[in-house]
Design a protein that fits this description.
Layout: E1 5-7, H1 17-21, E2 27-31, E3 36-38, E4 46-52, E5 55-58, E6 72-74, E7 79-80, E8 96-99, E9 103-109, H2 110-119, H3 121-143, H4 149-159, E10 165-166, E11 173-174, H5 181-188, H6 192-201, E12 206-208, E13 211-214, H7 221-238
Antiparallel strand pairs: 1-2, 2-9, 3-8, 4-7, 4-9, 5-6, 5-8, 10-11, 11-13, 12-13
Helix pairs in contact: 4-5, 4-6, 4-7, 5-6
Length: about 240
């Protein structure tokens, strides 16, 4: 049985975040791997900062290939519950978030968040910076939806390299065990058939000791651009 734990203990946290939030007494929360953190349509009680672990965020049917909104992989320093920052004071989650690994986070309730925004300009600046980064990341993810499945998978692998660990004695990177072929397919927006094809055709991708391993140098930017151009031409021909 999965269990969620709340406490005031400390654990690894993005630089400076503890100092910014300390005066507002955030809750320290842990989620087990595969636990649902928030569900689309549920009440958004506050803002959550990931301090450790990986989270898959989906909107509507995106995880099942039924939505144009690509899933997003969240990690240390990312936020959940940003809906409550909307001018209309959104009260419901617009996305669902599921823990891929054990996840630790800081939770700040609505009242404390409003106080922090009013009192601390550094806090506001940190939020603006995060939201800008997130905006461009999602735009890039949406833009790659026109790519060929192989190029789309390659682009996803390049996007998730910050979560990878180097393979000793190689130039290759190993994905976290939680990011398997199913999760890669969700992040890439590929069907199971497309994913099988992409796994066969993508150069240098292999499995070692239960983890997927690849060399970023094998994912040629020139090849991606060529495939993107071919995909764009096909879209124009279909009109």
């Amino acid at each position: 049985m999965v269990m969620r734990m709340l406490s005031q203990e400390s654990f690894p946290c993005p630089d400076g975040l503890t100092d910014l939030l300390g005066a507002y007494r955030p809750l320290h929360v842990r989620y087990a791997a595969e636990e649902l953190i928030c569900r689309e349509g549920a009440f958004a009680a506050g803002l959550q900062w990931i301090t450790q672990g990986l989270v898959l965020e989906t909107e509507g049917g995106s995880a099942r290939g039924q939505s144009d909104a690509p899933p997003d992989l969240l990690s240390q320093g990312d936020l959940m519950g940003i809906e409550i920052l909307l001018p209309a004071l959104e009260e419901r989650h617009r996305t669902s978030c599921r823990a891929l690994t054990e996840v630790s986070l800081l939770f700040l309730d609505r009242a404390s968040l409003e106080r922090a925004l009013a009192e601390d300009s550094r806090f506001s600046a940190s939020l603006v910076g995060h939201l800008a980064t997130r905006c461009f990341r999602l735009r890039r993810a949406r833009a790659r939806q026109v790519l060929d499945p192989v190029a789309r998978l390659a682009a996803t692998l390049l996007d998730v390299t910050p979560t990878c660990q180097p393979v000793e004695g190689e130039e290759s990177l190993a994905l976290p065990e939680a990011i398997d072929a199913r999760v890669l397919g969700e992040l890439s927006g590929l069907s199971s058939v497309q994913m099988r094809r992409a796994l066969r055709e993508l150069p240098g991708l292999r499995t070692a000791s239960g983890q997927m391993v690849f060399n970023p140098r094998d994912l040629s930017q020139d090849a991606l651009l060529l495939r993107e151009g071919e995909a764009s031409e096909r879209l124009l021909d279909d009109r």
